[in-house]
Design a protein that fits this description.
By secondary structure, the chain is an all-alpha fold. The chain is 75% helix and 0% strand. The protein folds into two domains: 30-217, Growth Hormone, Chain: A, CATH 1.20.1250; 243-428, Up-down Bundle (Growth Hormone, Chain: A), CATH 1.20.1250.
Amino acid sequence: MATAHGDDEGHEHITRSPNFPSGATEKDRFDGGCSWVVCIAGFLIQCIVCAQGNLSGLIFTAVLNEYNNTSRSQTAWVTALAAGVSDGFAMIPAILGNRFGFANVIMLGGVICAVGMFTSSFAPNIYVLYLTYGLVWGFGSCLCNCAALFVLPHFFSARIGLANGIVFFGAPVGTLALTPFVAYLLQRVRLARTFQILAGIQLVIMFSGFMIRLAPSPPPSPPSKSDQLHIKNERKSGFDWTIFKNKGYMTFVVALCLFMPTYLVPYVHLVRLAEDSGIDPIQAALLINFVAFGSVIVRPFFGKLMDMRYVNRLTALQITLLLLSVFTTLVPIATNYEWLATYAFLFGFLEGCFVISLPLIVQDLVEKKQQAFALGSLFCFRSIPMTAGPSIAGWIYDVTQSYNVAFFSAGVVTVLSTCVMFLVPLFKNRSYSKQRETIQVARNSELCHKENIVAKETCL
């Protein structure tokens, strides 16, 4: 029988820790105590990697001040390139994780992140930062962040939404902690020394990967005929190409790519917009904290909400994007700090709902054996428009000397993306409905089990 550690039959390399007992039940195999160790490790990775990405506004302003002869569109490429690479190479951790183990991929990513951040401190010009921060650190963050997400379905089933919510909860928590710390460092020791200190913090990622390596991995269920077909495709090329025949999944990819040019615009340009409006730089930097605070509030609860049987995950995402488009369109009329802080909070709240929805919707659209490849492909496709978005907004500012057109356009494009998502249910593969029903039965049985326990305790 295949194990979760990667013999040729199962082709699943997750960790190298001891297996569960051969007689383990479904409840023991998933959503158990060891699974939450993996969840905590993912939380720590998000605290470091995604929080660093959320500080794009601070890094953008610091780089703009450090290299005075660069335009805003050129400067925006530093953080935008890092974000694009972090998603654009997402297929690499999917393939390497299935081959060598996701824990090993995470630890390798932590080392690369530290190297990229440390070498960025010696960059003599912005073009070297494109390489060290944009490419090297971006690739390291891709390895550890994506691997931490791809490993979750191997440890969770009925509570996968809650697990995603807890993992993604790390990003706003880390942002709240790092924003004042990094702002203080940039004021006192400047950009180069700040990069060196952040390089040391990246090593926490290696500890998180080691935690996942020690967690016992559940043995996989016996493969079905469709699973055997996917395994055969993986053996031929290292990648399961059948996901691109899933019309529902590909429609969702197209809709998401329409939205992604707008995604990083507030992260990169909101702080500078506040400074241009006459707001003190320290207060402007704290807008990132408002984003993080809004995200902190919603992520765990929204993940739990998405596990409920009556919640349509795609509809929830559409409502989220529609509200986000309205608030983003109104940014040009936010002329004081209070309004900008309100927008930052609402953006963080809705962005938290958005990031939790993505992996869960992908899991609804593809089969379990395809989830890592499907999510990796989604990240890869969305990286191109996401990378270009902040630079396009910077170019619009350079031409018009105003952010009004950039934020208004972002709101309109988000509405268009929401409309395209109405086509996803029309093309959704019927073959996946059986697996979705199985997952739903698992959720219902768990709820019934809890209700029986409560009833017995009441009788006693």
